[in-house]
Amino acid sequence: MSEHFEDQYYYSEAGMPLLGDDFPEMKVQTTHGPMNIPGDLKGSWFVLFSHPADYTPVCTTEFHAFQERMADFDKLGCKLVGMSVDQVFSHIKWVEWIKDNLDTEITFPIVAANDRIAMQLGMLHPGKGSNTVRAVFVGDPEGKVRLILYYPQEIGRNIDEIVRAVKALQVSDANKVAMPANWPSNTLLKDRVIIPPANNIEDAKKRPSQYDCYDWWFCHKAL
């Protein structure tokens, strides 16, 4: 491996990825060494999240919170990857600070991105200088982008929602169903899931006898 790996970034020429797109390929330097994204993550769900800068209070609380939920991500077979445009030595020192001062050891890698990668992922806001916004990308085992969230710099992320979203995507994929608002704690359906609407008259007639339904287009079931 070249000793100048940290200066070598490879990325696709496509625009910012959208839902269902392949996550753009890139070779990056991380606190865990060189990494190919999404190649090294293939076969696993993953959450890649950007933060505006190292040594910032909100980001520090987020890293602590992500690490606190690591067991939940592990149960879902989901890997975490952090990212900002700070250099890798800054990431390493920040991780040391978090361990020394918050008694939390960060076990996931942190990418040292450059401006081109940050722009491609929509992490840089024209009015925010070189600081990145709080972007979240959820990828599936095929390296497809399945969910995108953006938070402004002044608002920390809800880690519970990210865990919930990954679980909901997995359940939806496995069962070919949709998930109601706030699943699995929906006020109408509790932890039940929604059946895709019928797409022909014959199926529409059968739905009320097959499932619990408010109407033929709004049917649900227990997992």
Q: What does this protein look like?
A:
This protein has 223 residues and is α+β, with helices and mostly antiparallel strands. Helices cover 30% and strands 22% of the residues. It contains six helices and ten strands. It has helices spanning 57-68, 70-75, 88-102, 115-120, 159-175, 201-210, and strands at 26-30, 33-37, 45-50, 78-84, 110-112, 134-139, 145-151, 193-195, 212-215, 218-221. A seven-stranded mixed beta sheet has the order 2-1-5-4-3-6-7. It has a three-stranded antiparallel beta sheet with strand order 8-10-9, covered by helices on one side. The longest helix has 17 residues, at 159-175. The protein starts with 25 loop residues before the first strand and ends with a strand. The model is unreliable at 1-13 (pLDDT under 50).
Q: Mean pLDDT, nearest integer?
A: 88
Rg over CA atoms: 20 Å
**How far is the first residue's CA from the last residue's CA?**
48 Å
Would you tell me the structural class of the helices and strands? alpha+beta
Q: Count helical runs.
A: 6
Strand content: 15-25%
Helix-strand pattern: EEEHHEHEHEEHEHEE
Largest sheet: 7 strands, mixed
Percent of residues in helical segments? 25-40%
| Oligomeric state of this protein | single chain
As residue ranges, the low-confidence spans are 1-13
Give the number of DSSP strands.
10
